[in-house]
Fold this protein.
Amino acid sequence: MEEQIYLNGAYIPRTNANISIMDRGFLFGDGVYELIPLYGKKIFLLDKHLKRLKNSLNLVGMENSDFDINNIEGIIKTLVDKNKYEDYFFYIHITRGVQNTRQHIYPEKIKPTVLIMGENYPVFNKDEIAKGFTASMQSDFRWTKSNIKSISLLGSVLLKNYASQNGFYETLLIRDNKLTEGSASNVFIVKDNKIFTPKLSVDLLPGVTRDLLINLLRENGLDVFEKDVTESDLKIADEVWCCSSTNFVVPIIQIDDITINNGIVGNIALRVYDLVRNFISAY
Ligand code: PLP
């Protein structure tokens, strides 16, 4: 049977799923999203993802939309049963909805478009993690509401493609001489066994994985500081790693032409990998 997705109340094959050209998500990128992992058929950290989704909806004035985000759990469970997913990811996409004319101003009452579908993103195994990855440093030219998980991702798309077209895994973003995040990840650095990650602000997404890593590291007796990380901190770090829901630790061993830790993945990054793997196994 063809893979089923959820669109506006119906479970349908992915290839039959269509939306109107008048959808504000299509015309304006007007909407928000989430990406939630599924490990061994269990939805990972659902509460944290729903909390962030609620916050994103509030921040774009969609808090009164008539889709109840508490339905997401049931929808995902139905998709897991229908498609027999075990380890997978769920993409949740909520746009402001369809309007008759293309205009910036949206009506007070508008029905959101809700898409929920499984996606099979590549997950690195421990051997790949242990080899490390490369990154480029670029100016963060995105907007200053990067705390919203907005579907308007053109900035991130350009920055991530800059990386891939130039042989890097990720682009690390600098604004006002400070690290914000990666094009699709949060970033941690290690210096003298102390761990730093940029503090939350409008310049970065409050990553669910970022939060998990901070908690796991602290529970295991490591010092984690949420504070500004400058461009030069990044360049002289002992370790740098990116994190996201798809790959919870991606060690960076080279940033442009600067080698980090002699090109060797650091022990703390490897420890984080094991800590998260154990957490997932026990979840
Ligand atoms: N920052 C950006 C810009 C992202 O796109 C993502 C994930 O897609 C993250 C951070 C990491 O967020 P999370 O750990 O919740 O997946």
In short: The domain at 126-282 is CATH 3.20.10.10 (D-amino Acid Aminotransferase; Chain A, domain 2). The chain has a mean pLDDT of 97. The CA atoms of residues 56 and 276 lie 26 Å apart. The longest strand covers residues 31-39.
